[in-house]
């Protein structure tokens, strides 16, 4: 008898987590994602590894889950995590009573805490406001969602799973009231993305289908006439050019808007807001949201008022609450998650939907969901995802500084090690020559080539894996270098199309930062791309009368070609 | 006590330099004040006049006939086509033999390092053998450790453009190896100094490696890194060794052709008698009765006054620092001159990266004498603007980089000089 | 096109109570990655292991996190010429970034028991060495001139044997000043000069920062400056003072530099309060007080001192009508080739001398152009950097060879040491030329 088969829809943290979990239990898995991995909410979070402190007053169940998973992720995903520590900062206008509640709540949830005086806080974080009262220190950290999702997907593949990105589920196949498979449209055929390659449609059958499409879970459910009431709620995040803080900074007040700064890689991310939207793909991205975020956060860290922002982006939380709960404000809806068995709920066997929850608890969500699916499939296997490190995090990924740096200078080598974890040697040992391709983030050719191996011509995926083009110039100086790395494995036309997509994606977020230094940068980038390269009016599509142009003095006068 | 001159030009880019040269040529005692190095190092070193007409994506061979189609607020419309010719004449005199293109009124098409082609009016001598209207077959050569220019990909792109010759790209290893983060200037200097390597010198070995991949092509293009201070010697030697023409493909910043252009223009300004002051910014001014009386230089905490009868503002756009912005307002940075811009910041850009953006045209408005205006009102009767500090045009999209600066620089500088 | 001063400047914050641990990451916000700084770096030109200022400055800072104490060791190769600061079109505080990174490297990563460290410590504290040497100038000169001493210096301390130690003047400038009657007689002479010039009722007074070199070695420069300024009516005071700190900055010894900066800011700050402007004849000294102190040290009064600190030629250019003064001059001076010191360029005083003398009868003055001499304070005094130093200087040496001038003219004593070493030219200071033009003729 062949192994039981499943399809997981959605390549966010939950989807790849479920795929990994099931694959490790010996289940045949096909994961389908319509964009690249983290295309949805996972790629649009603030990068915070919660200690749970944020939920310790209002949602203690989520808080405890966060703390447990926080510890597990430090073990299994060490190369995706930076344990920065976090602070809940009390400003003069913030309530003493709430501060006490927060402190006690953390203790009740098993979150280690320490109260720090204003002087102690300013010593650690000198760019915070001198007006602050005090703070609670908690074990918050930063996590890279891209690296984490890719590592989960790679692990799943290593355990036999098939991962298909740029493959959109267009229908659920229902036979006799049972979901038996999906119809999927591969944008450029099955396998890794190649710009310009022809698309194809495939029908895939499986013993069970898991809907982990996040904000899109309702749309998937509707394909089998099922109601999955996901409430999409948007939140804005703004990326600063440098880290003004090195710890996660939370404002110590009842959960609300614009109250977190997360030091993420080379940047700091300001977050966020919470507002229900109709459509997770199409909602207004407004100036007032960005301005509000900067103004609010400047109260806690005044330097932010005039600091350079690189871009802003919006994430859509797929909130869910059981029918009839009736919460009015989206920020009050639980961050708990739900595994919906459509056989029990809707008499439609073959499909399980997982909704709600938070990024940090993705693994536990995946475990519960996989437990459920295995129960349905009659598979008797233990979950091992909490114990087995993800690819890149083996040996704790704490590598000695004395190791060979492959000629890289110390901060570049350090950053490479942090990104690649235990894969550092494998990836960098092959590159010769290995020039730096992205100066801002210190990404070398070897790392780009490694990412291209799995991402194909999807430069946005290459970017997410390596951070190339995510620094100060937002790809102004390196986007075309990234595209050049695709050639000659992929032809010029495909590389050009991939580059065009990267330019558009980089612009999409950067336009929200278009003032001051980033406006200057955009002007410089525009001059390089449009004037020096003529990318904007590239005459590949028009017919040029070459003879009407100056062919040089040689041709004009019959002199030698150099015009001497 | 203020330091006095007849004409004071603020800004040391191509607009400032051409203004200063034009003013000095009228006999006026002229000073040019520049804060730091100019932004010419960001530029390709090509001098574009006008490559495209509005709303037409076919490159134009005749830059002048498209000028007539430009809107009234375009700086070319203010100064007229003859001023463009005068500006180019000033340029031709200033750079002499270092540039080509003056033999023809038509634009030339030059290969870009992306593999596209771009219409331009003047090009460095080192770029001349690479023109794409010349139908000789071409080999592009990239260096495997230099990531900015991928020769095989650029060659394929040129073929996609439909150039009238065969073009191939090859990648070779540079004779000397550098650390991973070496800039193009490092390669240029190794060629300048013709450093010794195992099998000879850098120039010799590079020529050998290119010869090994050269087929029937009659010309070979390299990224623009063939030497800095001795670039003509480097290129000539490679040409002699290979027996074919050698040219440079202009690249992005830091751009050696752009820096060479800066040097050439500074030499010309000095020859014209321009007095040059650099290192500190002009930050403020005093005015009286609609005239600028003096401008104030900040020398790290204290201010020094410079006085003249006529002033030229050539401080550039947002990149050069002449235009500054915050989340609400865009304005000129020394005199606080107004810059027309949509009130809503989200109308400063288009959602498409190549769309019709407002921000790319930010700059001051001027009258026909290039005096900055607010509405219709001239702000200072003795202040003129030149170059990218003027708004109402997007040099990158229309391919008029340097051309507008030369034309407006010529007009602003010579008018200022004649009034003293 | 010039990049104008930004209205908002970031305030670097002390990460820890320690002077060297500053957080300069916010300064990276100004960088647009254009790489122009790379094209002017003299070290990057000759030393391929040196990545250049873009990496050393904004890139390295941006990649650094608070817990990362390791800075790339290549920062030790930076010679602190500040040419990257001069070139940057965006006001990125490159010099400051290099200074702080280098100080962190020297403090946390360099072996403090090494010969190199001890040698650097000696060079950094040149003021003390100079003081000792100048106590017995003839003996010092004889000893430093001995081949055996040079050999020992190289082997034991890592000074290049190719270089000869600068001679000590037989009398320090301070000794001369004091013999001459000090501050009191200066006030008298200046008052007489003002009367002769019809400038009664005008307050013209300056405090002279002579630094180490003009005190121990080039005392003629300081004396020319005194005679010139007094003839124009300036009362001069010469307070007790410490080394400006330039060699300490260059060797990453910021704690030492902070010590001298505190003393100098204290002394010269009170003089500023009393209405004195501050003048130095050495462009590295004036740059230290004017630019490096306020960039690196949060000392009471440091901004006041900085904004009143002038280069000696610049001060006269700004405050006197020198063009009128020079209008009738006919100067008997050998044909000269001027070399603008990098530290003069970063302050914006380059070009004043050539401009002033362009039309003066009897003066023939050419220019070496925009090149670094390669000695850069203490850099060329290290045997491991001697070759780089000479290779950097090669372009300047050639420029001197090609120019028609018979003597060299420069403000910087270190440039002049390198010019003498590399070309054999006699080197004069613009103060001497101005004295000849305005006092003697």
Automatic annotation (TrEMBL), chain A:
Membrane topology (UniProt): Peripheral membrane protein
Entry-linked InterPro entries: BFD-like_2Fe2S-bd_dom (IPR007419), BFD-like_2Fe2S-bd_dom_sf (IPR041854), FAD-dep_OxRdtase (IPR006076), FAD/NAD-bd_sf (IPR036188), G3P_DH_FAD-dep (IPR000447), G3P_DH_GlpA_su (IPR017752)
Gene3D superfamilies: BFD-like [2Fe-2S]-binding domain, D-Amino Acid Oxidase, subunit A, domain 2, FAD/NAD(P)-binding domain
Residue span, FAD dependent oxidoreductase domain: 7-362
Pathway involvement of the protein, from the record: Polyol metabolism; glycerol degradation via glycerol kinase pathway; glycerone phosphate from sn-glycerol 3-phosphate (anaerobic route): step 1/1
Reaction catalysis annotation: a quinone + sn-glycerol 3-phosphate = dihydroxyacetone phosphate + a quinol
Entry keyword Membrane: yes
Cofactor(s) required, per the database record: FAD; FMN
Compartment list: Cell membrane
Its EC number(s): 1.1.5.3
Any one Gene Ontology molecular-function term assigned to this protein's record: flavin adenine dinucleotide binding
Class of the enzyme per the UniProt entry, highest EC level: oxidoreductase
Listed SUPFAM superfamilies: FAD-linked reductases, C-terminal domain, FAD/NAD(P)-binding domain
One GO cellular component term: glycerol-3-phosphate dehydrogenase (FAD) complex
Subunit annotation: Composed of a catalytic GlpA/B dimer and of membrane bound GlpC.
Family statement drawn from the similarity comment of this UniProt entry: Belongs to the FAD-dependent glycerol-3-phosphate dehydrogenase family.
PANTHER family: GLYCEROL-3-PHOSPHATE DEHYDROGENASE, GLYCEROL-3-PHOSPHATE DEHYDROGENASE, MITOCHONDRIAL
Protein name according to UniProt: Glycerol-3-phosphate dehydrogenase
Gene from which this protein is expressed: glpA
UniProtKB/TrEMBL annotation, chain B:
Pfam families in the cross-refs: FAD_binding_2 (PF00890)
Domain FAD-dependent oxidoreductase 2 FAD-binding: 6-404
SUPFAM superfamilies, per the entry: FAD/NAD(P)-binding domain
EC number, UniProt record: 1.1.5.3
Domain of life of the organism encoding this protein: Archaea
UniProt keyword annotations, A-Z: Flavoprotein, FMN, Oxidoreductase
GO molecular function: glycerol-3-phosphate dehydrogenase (quinone) activity
GO cellular component: glycerol-3-phosphate dehydrogenase (FAD) complex
NCBIfam families: glycerol3P_GlpB (TIGR03378), PRK05329.1-5 (NF003722)
Name of the molecule in the record: Anaerobic glycerol-3-phosphate dehydrogenase
Organism: Halapricum desulfuricans
Gene (UniProt): glpB
TrEMBL record, chain C:
A Pfam family annotated for this UniProt entry: Fer4_8
One record GO biological process: anaerobic respiration
Keyword Repeat: yes
Keywords, sorted A to Z: 4Fe-4S, Iron, Iron-sulfur, Metal-binding, Oxidoreductase, Repeat
InterPro entries hit by this protein: 4Fe4S_Fe-S-bd, Cys_rich_dom, G3P_DH_GlpC_su, Helical_ferredxn
Taxonomy, superkingdom: Archaea
Keyword Cell inner membrane: no
GO molecular function: 4 iron, 4 sulfur cluster binding; glycerol-3-phosphate dehydrogenase (quinone) activity; metal ion binding
A GO-annotated cellular component: membrane
EC id: 1.1.5.3
Domain 4Fe-4S ferredoxin-type, first and last residues per copy: 67-100
Name recorded for this polypeptide: Fe-S oxidoreductase
Organism: Halapricum desulfuricans
Gene this protein is translated from: glpC
């Amino acid at each position: 008898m062949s192994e039981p088969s499943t399809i997981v829809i959605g390549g966010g943290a939950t989807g790849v987590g479920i795929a990994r979990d099931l694959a490790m239990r010996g289940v045949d898995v096909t994961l389908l994602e319509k964009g690249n991995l983290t295309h949805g909410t996972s790629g649009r979070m603030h990068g915070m590894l919660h200690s749970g402190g944020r939920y310790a007053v209002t949602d203690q169940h989520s808080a405890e889950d966060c703390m447990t998973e926080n510890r597990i992720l430090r073990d299994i995903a060490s190369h995706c995590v930076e344990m920065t520590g976090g602070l809940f900062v009390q400003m003069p206008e913030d309530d003493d009573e709430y501060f006490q509640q927060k402190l006690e709540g953390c203790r009740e949830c098993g979150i280690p805490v320490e109260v720090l005086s204003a002087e102690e806080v300013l010593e650690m974080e000198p760019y915070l406001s001198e007006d602050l009262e005090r703070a609670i220190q908690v074990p918050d950290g930063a996590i890279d969602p891209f690296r984490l999702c890719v590592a989960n997907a790679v692990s799943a593949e290593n355990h036999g799973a098939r991962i298909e990105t740029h493959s959109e589920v267009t229908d659920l196949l229902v036979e006799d009231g049972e979901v038996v498979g999906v119809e999927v449209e591969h944008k450029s055929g099955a396998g890794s993305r190649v710009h310009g390659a022809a698309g194809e449609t495939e029908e895939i059958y499986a013993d069970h289908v898991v809907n982990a499409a996040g904000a899109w879970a309702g749309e998937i459910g509707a394909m089998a006439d099922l109601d999955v009431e996901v409430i999409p709620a948007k939140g804005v995040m703004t990326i600063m050019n440098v880290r003004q803080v090195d710890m996660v900074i939370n404002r110590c007040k009842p959960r609300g808007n614009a109250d977190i700064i997360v030091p993420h890689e080379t940047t700091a991310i300001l977050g966020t807001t919470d507002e229900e939207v109709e459509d997770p793909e199409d909602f207004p991205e407004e100036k007032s949201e960005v301005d509000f975020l900067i103004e609010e956060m400047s109260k806690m860290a005044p330097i932010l008022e005039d600091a350079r922002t690189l871009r802003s982006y919006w994430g859509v939380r797929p909130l869910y609450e059981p029918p009839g709960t009736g919460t009015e404000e989206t920020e009050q809806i639980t961050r708990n998650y739900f595994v919906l068995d459509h056989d029990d709920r809707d008499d439609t066997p073959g499909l399980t939907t997982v909704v709600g929850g938070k990024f940090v608890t993705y693994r536990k969500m995946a475990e519960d969901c996989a437990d459920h699916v295995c129960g349905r499939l009659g598979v008797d296997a233990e979950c091992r995802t909490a114990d087995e490190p993800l690819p890149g995090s083996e040996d704790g990924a704490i590598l000695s500084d004395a190791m060979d740096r492959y000629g890289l200078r110390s901060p570049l080598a350090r950053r490479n090690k942090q990104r690649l974890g235990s894969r550092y040697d494998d990836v960098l040992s092959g590159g010769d020559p290995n020039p730096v391709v992205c100066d801002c983030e210190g990404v070398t050719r070897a790392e780009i080539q490694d990412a291209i191996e799995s991402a194909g011509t999807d430069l946005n995926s290459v970017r997410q894996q390596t951070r190339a083009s995510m620094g100060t110039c937002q790809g102004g100086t390196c986007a075309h270098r990234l595209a050049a790395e695709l050639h000659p494995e992929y032809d010029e036309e495909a590389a050009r199309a991939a580059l065009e997509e990267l330019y558009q994606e980089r612009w999409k977020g950067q336009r929200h930062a278009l003032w001051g230094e980033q406006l200057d940068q955009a002007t410089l980038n525009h001059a390089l791309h449009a004037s020096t390269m003529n990318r904007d009016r590239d005459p590949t599509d028009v017919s040029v009368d070459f003879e009407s142009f100056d062919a040089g003095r040689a041709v004009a006068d019959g002199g030698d070609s150099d015009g001497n | 006590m203020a330091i006095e001159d007849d004409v004071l030009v603020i800004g040391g880019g191509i607009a400032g330099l051409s203004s200063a040269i034009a003013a000095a040529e009228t006999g006026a005692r002229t000073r040019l004040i520049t804060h730091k190095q100019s932004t010419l190092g960001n530029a390709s070193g090509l001098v574009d006049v006008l490559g495209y007409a509005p709303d037409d994506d076919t490159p134009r061979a005749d830059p002048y006939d498209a000028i007539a189609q430009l809107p009234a607020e375009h700086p070319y419309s203010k100064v007229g086509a003859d001023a463009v010719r005068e500006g180019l004449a000033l340029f031709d005199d200033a750079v002499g033999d270092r540039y080509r293109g003056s033999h023809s009124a038509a634009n030339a098409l030059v290969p870009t390092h992306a593999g596209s082609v771009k219409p331009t009016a003047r090009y460095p001598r080192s770029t001349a053998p690479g023109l794409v209207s010349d139908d000789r077959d071409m080999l592009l050569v990239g260096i495997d450790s230099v990531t900015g220019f991928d020769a095989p990909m650029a060659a394929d792109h040129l073929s996609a453009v439909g150039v009238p010759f065969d073009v191939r790209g090859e990648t070779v290893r540079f004779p000397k190896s550098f650390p991973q983060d070496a800039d193009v200037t490092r390669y240029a200097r190794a060629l300048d100094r013709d450093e010794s390597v195992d099998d000879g010198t850098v120039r010799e070995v590079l020529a050998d490696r290119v010869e090994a991949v050269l087929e029937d092509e009659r010309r070979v293009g390299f990224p623009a890194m063939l030497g800095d201070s001795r670039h003509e010697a480097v290129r000539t030697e490679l040409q002699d060794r290979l027996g074919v023409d050698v040219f440079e493909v202009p690249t992005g910043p830091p751009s050696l052709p752009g820096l060479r252009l800066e040097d050439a223009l500074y030499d010309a300004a000095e020859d014209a008698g321009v007095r040059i002051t650099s290192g500190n910014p002009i930050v403020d001014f005093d005015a009286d009765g609609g005239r600028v009386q003096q401008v104030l230089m900040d020398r790290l905490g204290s201010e020094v006054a410079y006085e003249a009868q006529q002033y030229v503002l050539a401080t550039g756009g947002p990149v050069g620092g002449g235009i500054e912005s915050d989340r609400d307002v865009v304005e000129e940075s020394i005199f606080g001159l107004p810059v027309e811009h949509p009130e809503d910041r989200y109308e400063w850009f288009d959602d498409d990266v190549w769309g019709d953006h407002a921000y790319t045209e930010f700059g001051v408005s001027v009258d026909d004498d290039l005096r900055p205006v607010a509405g219709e009102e001239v702000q200072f009767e003795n202040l003129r603007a030149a170059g990218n500090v003027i708004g109402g045009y997007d040099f990158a999209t229309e391919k008029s980089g340097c051309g507008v600066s030369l034309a407006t620089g010529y007009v602003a500088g010579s008018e200022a000089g004649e009034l003293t | 096109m010039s990049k104008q001063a930004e209205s908002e400047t970031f305030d670097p914050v002390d990460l820890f109570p320690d002077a060297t641990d500053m957080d300069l990451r916010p300064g990276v916000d100004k960088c647009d990655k254009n790489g122009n700084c790379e094209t002017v770096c003299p070290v990057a030109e000759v030393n391929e292991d040196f990545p250049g200022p873009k990496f050393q400055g904004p890139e390295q800072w941006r990649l650094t996190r608070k817990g990362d104490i390791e800075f790339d060791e290549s920062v030790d190769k930076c010679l602190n010429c500040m040419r990257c600061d001069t070139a940057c079109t965006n006001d990125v505080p490159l010099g400051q970034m290099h200074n702080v990174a280098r100080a962190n490297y020297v403090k946390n990563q360099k072996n403090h028991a090494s010969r190199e460290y001890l040698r650097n410590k000696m060079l950094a504290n040149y003021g003390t060495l100079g003081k000792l040497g100048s106590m017995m100038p003839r003996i010092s000169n004889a000893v430093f001139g001995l081949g055996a001493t040079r050999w020992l210096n190289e082997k034991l301390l890592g000074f290049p044997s190719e270089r000869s130690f600068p001679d000590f003047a037989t009398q320090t400038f301070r000794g001369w000043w004091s013999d001459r009657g000090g501050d009191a007689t200066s006030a008298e002479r200046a008052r007489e000069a003002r009367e002769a010039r019809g400038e009664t009722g005008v307050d013209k007074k300056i405090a002279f920062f002579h630094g180490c070199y003009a005190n121990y070695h080039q005392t003629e420069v300081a004396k020319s400056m005194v005679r010139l300024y007094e003839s124009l009516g300036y009362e001069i005071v010469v307070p007790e003072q410490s080394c400006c700190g330039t060699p300490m900055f260059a060797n990453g010894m910021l704690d030492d530099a902070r010590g001298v900066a505190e003393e100098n800011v204290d002394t010269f700050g009170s003089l500023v309060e009393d209405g004195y402007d501050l003048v130095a004849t050495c462009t590295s000294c004036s740059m230290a007080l004017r630019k490096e102190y306020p960039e690196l040290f949060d000392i009471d009064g440091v901004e006041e001192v900085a904004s009143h600190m002038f280069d000696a030629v610049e001060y006269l250019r700004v405050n006197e009508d020198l063009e009128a003064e020079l209008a009738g001059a006919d100067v008997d001076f050998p044909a000269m080739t001027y070399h603008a010191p990098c530290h003069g360029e970063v302050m914006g005083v380059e070009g004043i001398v050539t401009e002033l003398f362009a039309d003066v009868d009897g003066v023939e003055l050419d220019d070496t152009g925009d090149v670094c001499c390669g000695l850069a304070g203490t850099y060329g005094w290290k045997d491991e950097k001697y070759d780089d130093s000479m290779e950097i200087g090669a372009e300047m040496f050639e420029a001197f060879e090609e120019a028609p001038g018979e003597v060299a003219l420069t403000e910087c004593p270190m440039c002049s040491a390198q010019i003498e070493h590399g070309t054999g030219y006699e080197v004069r200071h613009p103060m001497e030329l101005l004295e000849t033009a305005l006092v003697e003729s």
